[in-house]
Amino acid sequence: MRTTIHDLKKGQRATIADFDLDLIPLKLLEMGCLPGNEVVLLQVAPLGDPLYLDINGSHLAIRTETAKNITVEPIQTL
């Protein structure tokens, strides 16, 4: 089963693994949403959309629809 940013719980960390370039806005790529970068889910809006993220120190909000297209590998914490 693939895990996406949309599947993360608040405060959970993950590493971006893959995404389809045709489904991700260029602006996100410019802001550091690239494979290998760490992402943390900071907050979810009251109605579930958008998601507020920290990607390598940059804070940004993305739509749930976009988050479902970004595959991540969760980072296990001790």
Q: Could you characterize the architecture of this molecule?
A:
- The protein has a six-stranded antiparallel sheet with strand order 1-6-2-3-4-5.
- With 78 residues, the protein is mainly β.
- It has one domain: Ferrous iron transport protein A (FeoA) (SH3 type barrels, Roll), CATH 2.30.30.
- Strand 4 and strand 5 form a beta hairpin.
- Keywords: Iron.
- It holds the Pfam family FeoA.
Task: Kindly summarize this structure in a few lines.
With 78 residues, the protein is mainly β.
The count of domains is: 1
Query: Per CATH, which architecture?
Result: Roll
> Which series of helices and strands comes N to C?
EEHEEEHE
SSE class = mainly beta
Query: Strand order within the widest sheet?
Result: 1-6-2-3-4-5
Strand proportion, as a percent range, falls in 35-45%
Q: Roughly how much helix do the residues carry, as a percent range?
A: 10-25%
Question: Distance between termini?
Answer: 23 Å
Q: Main sheet, how many strands, which sense, barrel?
A: 6 strands, antiparallel
**Highest CATH level, the class:** Mainly Beta
Q: Can you identify the CATH superfamily?
A: Ferrous iron transport protein A (FeoA)
Approximate shape: globular
- Rg, rounded, reads 11 Å
On the 0-100 scale, what is the average pLDDT? 89
